[in-house]
Amino acid sequence: MKKALVLGAGGFIGNHLVNRLKSEGFWVRGIDLKYPEFQKTQADHFVIGDLRDLAVVIEGMKSPDSTPFEEVYQLAADMGGAGYIFTGDNDANVMHNSATINLNIADQAVKYKIGKIFYSSSACMYPAYNQEDPDNPECSESSAYPAAPDSEYGWEKLFSERLFLAYERNYGLQVRIARFHNIFGELSTYTGGKEKAPAAICRKVATAKSGESVEVWGDGLQTRSFLYIDECLTGVRKLMDSDFSGPVNIGSDEMVSINQLVEMVAKISGKTISLHHIPGPIGVRGRNSDNKLIYEKLSWRPSEPLTAGITKLYHWVNEQVHQTVHPA
Prior knowledge:
- The chain has helices spanning 12-23, 54-60, 82-85, 91-111, 152-171, 197-207, 229-240, 258-269, 292-298, 306-322, and strands at residues 3-7, 27-32, 45-48, 71-74, 116-122, 175-180, 183-184, 213-217, 223-225, 227-228, 248-250, 255-257, 274-278.
- The protein is α/β, with parallel strands linked by helices.
- It is globular, with a radius of gyration of 19 Å.
- The termini are far apart.
- The mean pLDDT is 94.
């Protein structure tokens, strides 16, 4: 039985990844500061631990049968939605926490001679100057330099990409790197300040009555693409099973404005919803996944339209915000 270590296993993507690996027959250990929020973990062994602490990483890398983990997935990071990343209030923590985690993990992965390590980078590492036109953003993998990310989160992701690739060159660590583009789906945070746009919009529409308005940061003309979690994990597993290190985009190339996303969710809900634009952090004006390289290398592309995943997310969020506790 192959063994996998999922770092950040209590988070949205990490939890789903544990489930996917278990379904494929892996023995899985998860490590995180917390358990998954919305369901019990399926990991065979789950460690509550802080990956900034080198001792936690050292202990976590020790496999149950004393042979190296065949696969390690590094998803742990200090991150959140625009309300967390773009205010500037959390920059020091975002950079220090995530960089410390990745420095610990890269070094110990070599010492424990693990098979392959996956690192989840982000589209936030792309230059802001290529994302000023909401209709024509440039996010091909080759456009990463000259570097100019729009946030410290993006700078840290770029640093960590280079860190893992340096360990590959100097120490033979087998690395796979993907730049995620706005992954969404059920079991994700939908309130509290760290939620991403799809879940936040679903919550706002779910809690609004027909005829009411929902708040949208900025003019809502900023564009993004969003990828459903199951599609993301298929791309990740294809990358890990390949001989291609990356970095490579894993995202959708179906670009929509935030206003269009709200309209999509409103249509799914069956409500008449208007938009109330307010000041707020919005990040770059346009971002869209360029999937030419991943299709060339892995023959991967999303299999469903955005509305299919958003429909699933909306119904799940709607259940969460309207759930009632029934007496025993």
